[in-house]
Every structure is written in structure tokens, then in C-alpha cells.
């Protein structure tokens, strides 16, 4: 429609980015959506669309706009970190730091309260001609304990919006802490292998960390890594003048100076760390590409050809 500059996006259960795109496209052009719906609702040429447009317009109130603004701000933070986590060059320690920073930003949003969101929602309602008034009361049902009355608790609509704001943020932070706890633990296990830690951490502590790593990954690393880390601590300054070097830089330096025969377990540890996937984005991409490759017109494609076509589609950048 001429009222909209960007097409409204649909939500997808399998792609997290679609949630932000759906909310943000509506948030950015909410006024245009209202205008388009009002035009449809007053034009009989649209037939059944007139009743549908009127029904949708009735659902747009201050409460709807408030949640639209709230989710746009929350998903904006999550979406950008999500895009960074899908980078092919990101390591687990970098991902862990980004997620911690995301938690800090959400905590700051929680601490600052929801007054700014309320103000913006009221301003948007005034611009598009929606009543900027909230319902007088809401009844919250809660679990009744033995001996208590079964009546609900009456709260104002303003209190309801505030409670929902804190509930969403608390749930978000709790879920991220639970989901990425293992990622944080793995980053801590390999933290002593960073260039900075190797240069400033005492030898005895490095040997303890190396022994713990050998116990945890005993199928790939043996206890000889304790002697290797003691040797490598004093060599890292010679091969890496930059103490901010990444794990990949250290691994390349080990290969360049032919230390892989001297420190095989250390090299294995760096390879383990760098090959651990940060996200399952590549797996999700595989399923998405598979659906695009095997369409209705290609329903007779053999399994072997389908597999090869999917790999070519997924890795098309590497094939150029």
C-alpha cells in the first residue's frame, strides 16, 4: 500500500530474527498501518476486508502500543547480539562476554523503569488519533493457599503494565542465564589460554588450570599439557608481542614457529576451543535451505543429489 514504506513482516517460530523484524516493521510505521486500515474500513470496494479492518482497529489501544514499544526496545538489544553470535569468526569467550553485556543492558532497562515507554506510547497514540487512556481496573488471579479467600486482586491498568514490564525482563534474564550457563563454563575452562592470562597468571595457577582441563577432556588431552603450559608461558611473549591476540592468532603462531611438535596437547586445546560452536545457526540454516532446495517441482530428486544441492546452497560463498 502507498501508506507503508516497508512491508510488514510475519513471525516465524524457527527464526529468532523474525520476531524483531515483525515488531520493528510495525513500530516504525504504526501511523501508516492505522491510516491504511482506516482507508480500508471506509471503502466498500474491499468487501469482507472492511469488517476485518474495523476489527483490527478496535484492538489498537494504549495498552497495545505500550507493549509494541516495550518489545521493540527489548528485541532490539537481543537481535543485534544474535546477529553477532552468528558470525563465523566469533569464539566462545567472545560470545560469553557479549551475552554478559546483553544481560547488563537488560538489567539497566529494568532499573530505569518503564516511564519512558509509557510516555512514548501516549505520544504515539496522540499522533495517530487513538485514545491514550487505560482501563480502570484489572483483576489478577493468583493461586489460592489453604485458608485464603478465592477473590482476585484488583490493580490499576497502570500497575498491570508495570508488572508485565518487570515480568518480561526478569524472565528474559533468567532464561539467558540458564541457557548460556554451559557456554560461560566452557569459556572459563579455557580462559587461562588467552594471551593476557598466559602473561600475567603465575605458573602454578596455570598448571592447575591445565590439569583440570586435561581431566575434563581426557580423551583428547593428557597430563603432559601441564609441562607444556609451563614452557609456553615464557615463549608466548617471543612469538606474540600483542597481548590482546585472539586464540586463533595464538594457534597460528604455534603453527608458524613449529611449536606443534613441542606442545601437541596445547595445540589440541586451542583447536577444541576454536571448533566448539557458539550457536546452532548453521543447523537452522541447513533446514531452511533444504526446504528451499526441495520444492514441489523437485519432489522426485534423489537423496544424493538433494544432499549435494543443499551443501552447495549453504556454502555458496565458499564456492565463489
UniProtKB/TrEMBL annotation:
Molecular function terms from GO: protein dimerization activity
Domain HAT C-terminal dimerisation: 239-316
Source organism, top-level taxon: Eukaryota
Listed InterPro entries: AtLOH3-like, HATC_C_dom, RNaseH-like_sf
Residues spanning the membrane: none
PANTHER family: GENERAL TRANSCRIPTION FACTOR 2-RELATED ZINC FINGER PROTEIN, ZINC FINGER, MYM DOMAIN CONTAINING 1
Name used for this protein in its record: HAT C-terminal dimerisation domain-containing protein
Amino acid at each position: 500500500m502507498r501508506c507503508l514504506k516497508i512491508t510488514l513482516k510475519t513471525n516465524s517460530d524457527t527464526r529468532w530474527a523474525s520476531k524483531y523484524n515483525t515488531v520493528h516493521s510495525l513500530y516504525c510505521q504504526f501511523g501508516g498501518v492505522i491510516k491504511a486500515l482506516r482507508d480500508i474500513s471506509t471503502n466498500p470496494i474491499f468487501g469482507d476486508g472492511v469488517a476485518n479492518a474495523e476489527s483490527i482497529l478496535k484492538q489498537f489501544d494504549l495498552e497495545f502500543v505500550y507493549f509494541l514499544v516495550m518489545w521493540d526496545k527489548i528485541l532490539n538489544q537481543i537481535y543485534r547480539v544474535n546477529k553477532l553470535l552468528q558470525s563465523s569468526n566469533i569464539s566462545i569467550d567472545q560470545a560469553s562476554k557479549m551475552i554478559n553485556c546483553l544481560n547488563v543492558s537488560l538489567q539497566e532497562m529494568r532499573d530505569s523503569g518503564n516511564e519512558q515507554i509509557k510516555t512514548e506510547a501516549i505520544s504515539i497514540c496522540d499522533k495517530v488519533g487513538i485514545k491514550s487512556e487505560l482501563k480502570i481496573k484489572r483483576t489478577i488471579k493468583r493461586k489460592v493457599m489453604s485458608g485464603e479467600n478465592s477473590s482476585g486482586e484488583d490493580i490499576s491498568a497502570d500497575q498491570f503494565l508495570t508488572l508485565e514490564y518487570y515480568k518480561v525482563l526478569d524472565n528474559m534474564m533468567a532464561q539467558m542465564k540458564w541457557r548460556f550457563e554451559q557456554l560461560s563454563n566452557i569459556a572459563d575452562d579455557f580462559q587461562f589460554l588467552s594471551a593476557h592470562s598466559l602473561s600475567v597468571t603465575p605458573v602454578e595457577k596455570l598448571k592447575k588450570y591445565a590439569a583440570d582441563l586435561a581431566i575434563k577432556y581426557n580423551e583428547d588431552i593428557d597430563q603432559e599439557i601441564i609441562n607444556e603450559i609451563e614452557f609456553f608461558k615464557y615463549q608466548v611473549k617471543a612469538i606474540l608481542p600483542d597481548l590482546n591476540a585472539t586464540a586463533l592468532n595464538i594457534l597460528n603462531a604455534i603453527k608458524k614457529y613449529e611449536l606443534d611438535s613441542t606442545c601437541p596437547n596445547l595445540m589440541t586445546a586451542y583447536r577444541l576451543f576454536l571448533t566448539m560452536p557458539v550457536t546452532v545457526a548453521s543447523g537452522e540454516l541447513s533446514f531452511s535451505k533444504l526446504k528451499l532446495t526441495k520444492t514441489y517441482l523437485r519432489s522426485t530428486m534423489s537423496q544424493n543429489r538433494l544432499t549435494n544441492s543443499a551443501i552447495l546452497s549453504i556454502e555458496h560463498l565458499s564456492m565463489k
